[in-house]
Amino acid sequence: MELSITLIIIIITGLISFSAFSNHKIIDDLIFYPPSVTERGQWYRFFTCGLIHADIGHLLFNMISLYMFGEFVERSFSTPILFGEKGKFLYLGMYVLALFVCLVPTFIKHKNDYYYRSLGASGAVSAVVFAGILFDPTNKIGFFFIPPVIPGYIFGPLYLIASTYLEKQAKDNVNHSAHIWGALFGIGFIIAAAAILKSDYQPAEQFWLKIKYSLNL
């Protein structure tokens, strides 16, 4: 049985994260530390920080979210009407690029901040989640203890608003900026890729059509 790209990402991330829980050197080597990029050119940290997590809860939340949305998004990428045989490579490309793009604003803000560090795959996972919302905006989504009763097209804006508010408050140790930019990148990547590759599927148009149909408009 062939493993999906989503499952391969989950397995690799899980193995490295679990190894890092008991080995602080792995964390130091892989974590996103802006001064290391600014002064030593260690650009790889944009990507490797997505392979480690703060604790088991952080890891499970990200990987469960990735599994729930990733399998659907990966299949959608590979449908003949969208990207066909290129789908799996484009899906992987979106995930990897999201790791980088979601941290660019963070890097600009903290490039000389010796006290700042960031880790986790949340930005890339947000890209996958919002790609899923773009493909199926009427699908019901929950959040933590909230059951899956909120349509994606309502959940998405609420999530972005809440993340923006929390980012401005800066009262926790969560990089909400990465969530926001990862989510926006996921949407933008699909729309851009569909246009560049001249796909018959028009993501933005289909998004609105599905919402209108669900509302009987």
Give an overview of the whole structure.
The chain is 66% helix and 5% strand. The protein is mostly helical and 217 residues long. The protein has one domain (5-214): Rhomboid-like (Rhomboid-like fold, Up-down Bundle), CATH 1.20.1540.10. Strands 1-2 form a two-stranded antiparallel ribbon. The longest helix is centred in the first third of the chain and has 22 residues, at 56-77. The chain starts with a helix and ends with a helix. The model has no long low-confidence stretch (mean pLDDT 93).
Brief overview, please?
By secondary structure, this protein is mostly helical. Helix content is 66%, strand content 5%. The N and C termini lie far apart (43 Å).
Spatial strand order of the main sheet:
1-2
Helical stretch count?
A: 11
CATH class: Mainly Alpha
Distance between the termini: 43 Å
CATH superfamily: Rhomboid-like
Helix content: 55-70%
| Rg computed from alpha carbons, rounded to a whole number of angstroms | 17 Å
According to DSSP, the number of beta strands is: 2
CATH topology: Rhomboid-like fold
Helix/strand order, N-terminal first: HHHHHHHHEEHHH
Oligomer: single chain
Q: Which structural class do the helices and strands define?
A: mainly alpha
Write down the overall mean pLDDT: 93
Domains counted in the coordinates: how many? 1
Outline the low-pLDDT stretches: none
Largest sheet: 2 strands, antiparallel
